[in-house]
Amino acid sequence: PGSATTSWNPAVLGVSWANDFTSIAANQIDVKTDPRLSVKARGDGATDDTAAIRAAIKLASSTGGGVVYFPTGDYKILAPSKSVRATPLVVPSRIVLRGSGSTTSRLFVSDPDATSENDGIWTWGGIDFQGASLSGMTDLGVYAVNSSTAACAVLWNRGSSPVNKLFFNNLDVHL
Question: By CB neighbour count within 10 A (0-12 exposed, 13-18 middle, 19+ buried), where does 149 fall?
Fold first, then answer.
């Protein structure tokens, strides 16, 4: 497990294309402390951290890509489905979501409207990697917070956009 002062080493992926993440790994944005963020995540399990996380992803993307780092904590993400147009947490190309460990940095993805999901991907909430390349998640716990009667697209990548070099590493996923 790393800390905010330790950058992520893509070699842990053990794949031939790991070095393609070197420049991305050099730009790490801590969702709790990065001074470039006007809104910061609390990671207390109660506060809705969605806006702070979206801002960190946007900052990383606007600076050529980066690692959005979640130090130890419980992060509440609201990413609802909608029958017309959902609002998932979109992870674009050249973005890596990284925690301090799969049991210490936990994302609680809440989709209160999961029952409105249908087979159209435009209605899905959750965390959306659709069309992302050179992206992924590592060292995180991911928990679906939804009713027991409704399916929830928590981590997904579906559609016609080509995807290249997308990974999920050392995750503890609870659906």
Answer: exposed
The per-residue DSSP string of 51-119 comes to HHHHHHHHHHHHTT-EEEEE-SEEEEEE----SS----EE--TTEEEEES-TTTEEEEEE-TTGGG--S
Segment 54-90, tens digit of pLDDT: 999 999 999 999 999 999 999 999 988 887 778 889 9
* Of residues 161, 135, 124, the one with CA closest to residue 60: 135
Residue 20, SS3 per DSSP: helix
Using one digit for the tens of pLDDT, what is the confidence trace for 112-157? 888 777 777 788 888 998 889 999 999 999 998 876 666 667 888 7
Q: Residue 143: beta bridge partners? A: 108, 174
Assign 30 to helix, strand or coil: strand
Q: SS3 of 19, please?
A: helix
